[in-house]
Amino acid sequence: MVTSNISSIASLDDLQGFIYKTLCNDYELLPDTFPTTQNLLRKPNGECCGMMFCLHGPRKVKFTAIWEQSKNRIFFYGPSGDRYLRVDIDPSPVSELALS
User: Is 28 inside any structural domain?
Assistant: First the structure.
């Protein structure tokens, strides 16, 4: 698994765009071609703790990323479910977003 750092994410839209572009680049997918979905992740007590992003690729293949809010990092997973990349985000407004 590869780990990297970024510092250019300042909003939820930036986060979504970064994840979409990363998945498209990593798997040689044409940008703006495949739909994505997002779901809030919650702890057992109901508190939001992050988001799961899913890019629905060709032939029903799914590529996912999990943003962990408390540590402000993103884990990327390939179509087989193997984690292949971790991106640590420098402190930014994204870590302070109120997810509901």
Answer: yes
